[in-house]
Amino acid sequence: MVDLNGASAAELEALSGIGPVIGQRIVEFRQKTGRFRRVGDLSRVRGIGPAKLERLRGLVSVGVESDSDAGGNGDDERVEEALRVGGDPIAAHVETDEPAIADQVVEAD
To answer: Which residues touch 108 (CB under 8 Å, ≥6 apart)?
Structure first.
């Protein structure tokens, strides 16, 4: 099993159907966009269509799934986005649908 998030172009080339050009594209895609979240993200790399993606599914992995891939609450995605745009990853971790505690008015009985 080859980890898409850690493999070099040479390691990727060892996979059936991946030559030097596509191996390099995978590495460049990862450097430009960040870690692969799921194997299906390979379809976003030029030269990898549905048939090639299906052939690779049993040969590659992306390491540990993020919460959003595993049906979690998506916090990892919000934190990574905050880091990409220079925001606060702690604030991104907190759900924004609810008012902050400091914004809530509590009335005494």
So the answer is: none
